[in-house]
Specification:
There is one protein chain. With about 300 residues, the chain is an alpha/beta fold. Helix 4 links the parallel strand 3 and strand 4.
Length: about 300
């Protein structure tokens, strides 16, 4: 079974490329591959502000994953083209992790639209517009909302990213930003690591109407494993992950849901989970609940793979 996880912050944690293959954080390739063939979206992320400092740190993380790919080609390959994705799906290797590069926050652009093309050429394929503070592209769900959605620059960024073949990710976006992105986007949009707001009222989660809009555009939602985004009490279990899968599937179909665990970007995981090695525990729970093998394969990775084949 092929796994696809749409969001991980391990690049923020490691100090060297070698650490990607074995460490004591939530994610390393050894434990990821213990589940089976694995595609991991690697996020370049930084908490720093102002923009220029964040960009420097995010570029350092991109350089880490690029160096890992160069130095360890037998262990890691970044997916840049549809052919790379097809290779992964054909080989189904449990020796090599396939990765997709994402930037969590348009600070990576440094205010320059031309940076999108340079970063695309390096391998960036997913752009999460914003994190927990507003930037010059759009408002964050946790920010002050100076633009009431997208800025004029943000509109240009969304259009240019889609022209290049880069996926727009609306996780962390304010509701107004979400609305404007959906109104101008011509391609599928993802919420790489967001849950259902009607099950857990945290404002980082998606309203039912937003879930339906993502599905209508052919997008996919990655379930976030952070306990505080799974249940209002914060005392989550694996079954709470499945509750969100079931809710989203009931609203918009099983084809729009996958995993976006947010490993190494969260403080707490559901009871009994310690990291990426627990993905198979979710699969086993789904099978016990009489999900079919085809449905489980779609959730585990098939839905995101289908989307990537359309966009790459």
């Amino acid at each position: 079974m092929l796994f696809f996880d749409a969001h991980c912050d391990i690049l923020y944690k490691v100090k060297s490329p070698e650490e990607l293959f074995s460490n004591t954080h939530h994610w390393d390739s050894r434990r990821a591959l213990s589940n089976g063939p694995f595609i991991q979206v690697f996020s370049a992320f930084n908490e720093s502000f102002p923009r220029n400092i964040a960009k420097i740190h995010m570029e350092e993380q991109i350089n880490t994953i690029l160096k890992a790919e160069r130095d360890f080609p037998d262990k890691l390959k970044l997916i840049r083209r549809k052919e790379d994705l097809e290779e992964c799906c054909e080989k189904l290797s449990t020796d090599k992790v396939y990765g997709i590069l994402e930037a969590e926050g348009a600070e990576i652009l440094g205010g320059s639209l031309s940076e999108l093309k340079r970063l695309y050429d390096l391998g960036l394929r997913i752009l999460t517009l914003v994190w927990n503070y507003d930037n010059d592209v759009c408002d964050s769900v946790a920010g002050q909302n100076p633009y009431n959605g997208l800025s004029d620059f943000g509109v240009e960024v969304v259009k240019e990213a889609e022209r290049l073949g880069m996926i727009i990710d609306v996780s962390h976006s304010s509701d107004k930003t979400f609305e404007e992105v959906m109104s101008i986007s011509s391609k599928p949009v993802i919420a790489s690591h967001s849950n259902a707001r009607s099950l857990c009222s945290h404002k980082r989660n998606l309203a039912d109407a937003q879930i339906k809009m993502i599905a209508e555009k052919g997008g996919v939602i990655g379930i976030n494993f952070y306990s505080d985004f799974l249940i209002n009490t914060g005392n989550a279990q694996i079954l709470d992950i499945i509750r969100h899968i079931e809710h989203i599937s009931a609203l918009a179909g099983i084809s729009c849901v996958g995993f976006g665990a947010d490993l190494d970007g969260v403080e707490t995981l559901p009871q009994g989970m310690t990291g990426v090695e627990n993905f198979n525990d979710i699969i086993e729970a789904l099978l016990r609940l009489n999900y079919s093998e085809d449905q489980v394969k779609a959730i585990a990775g098939g839905n995101f793979v289908r989307l990537m084949k359309k966009v790459l």
